[in-house]
Amino acid sequence: MKQIVILISGSGSNMQAIARTAERDRWEQTLNARIAAVISNRPDAKGLQRAAAMGLTTQVVDHTAFADRADPRTAFDDVLRQTIDAYEPSLVVLAGFMRILTPGFVVHYEGRLLNIHPSLLPAFPGLHTHQRAIDAGCRVAGATVHLVTTELDHGPILAQAAVPVLTNDTADTLSARVLTQEHVIYPRVVAEYFKNLNDHP
Fold first, then answer.
1. pLDDT reported for residue 184
2. Rounded CA Rg of the chain
3. Measured in Å, how far apart are the chain's first and last C-alpha atoms?
4. What is the reported pLDDT for 201?
5. Active site residue 117
C-alpha cells in the first residue's frame, strides 16, 4: 500500500477534500494508496480535528518548539522529515502548510512533494495573492498545483483552475471562489500521481 502524508497549518479544507475523494473513490482498492497521516506544525490547527473525525492518524511537530535552536528552520525540518519518513510516504502533500521548507527538505522529497498555491502561477508567488490579483486589475484568478522545488512557488505545474475576478470582489470573496476550485483540482492531481505511479512503477 502506497502512503500519503498531508501537511497542514490551518483549517485543512484541502486535506479534507483529498480525504473525502480518497474515501469516495476507494483509493485503497483502485490506486493502492491511502492517507497514512496528517501532520501539522500548529497544535491548534482546526484541520487536525477534521482529520481525526475522518479516522485519520494525526501528529503535531510544533515549529515554535525549535525557537531556541541555533538554526530553528533546519532543526524543525529535520524532525519533520523524520516524522514523515516513519510512514515511508510515496507522496507528501502540502495543503495549506504555512512554513517555508529548507532546500535540504525539498530535495529529500524531490518528485514526490506537491503544493497548491492560490494563484495562476507564475503570477503572484508568495503571500496575499488574491489582493494582489485585484490590485493588478486581473480579470481571472485561480489556483495551481505544482511539484515543489527549492525555488518558492516555481515548480513544474501539474494543474490549474481559473475563476473570474468580479468588479465587487474583495480578497475574501475571491479567495472563497478560488478555494472551491482548489478542492476539485488537488484531489484529482493526487489521484493522477498514483495512476501514473502504478502504470510506470
1. 98
2. 17
3. 13
4. 72
5. yes
Q: Which residues pair with 39 in a beta bridge?
A: 7, 59
Q: Please tell me which residue in 63, 117, 130, 146 is annotated as part of the active site.
A: 117
Cβ neighbours, 10 Å, residue 176: 13
Closest to 23 (Cα-Cα) out of 47, 55, 1, 48: 55
The Cα-based distances of 106 to 13, 121, 129, 135, 178 in angstroms read: 23, 19, 23, 32, 26
* Nine cell digits for residue 53: 473525525
DSSP H/E element including 100: none
Which neighbouring-strand residues pair with 164?
A: 140
What single letter denotes the amino acid at residue 158? L
pLDDT tens per residue, range 90-118:
999 999 999 999 999 999 999 999 999 99
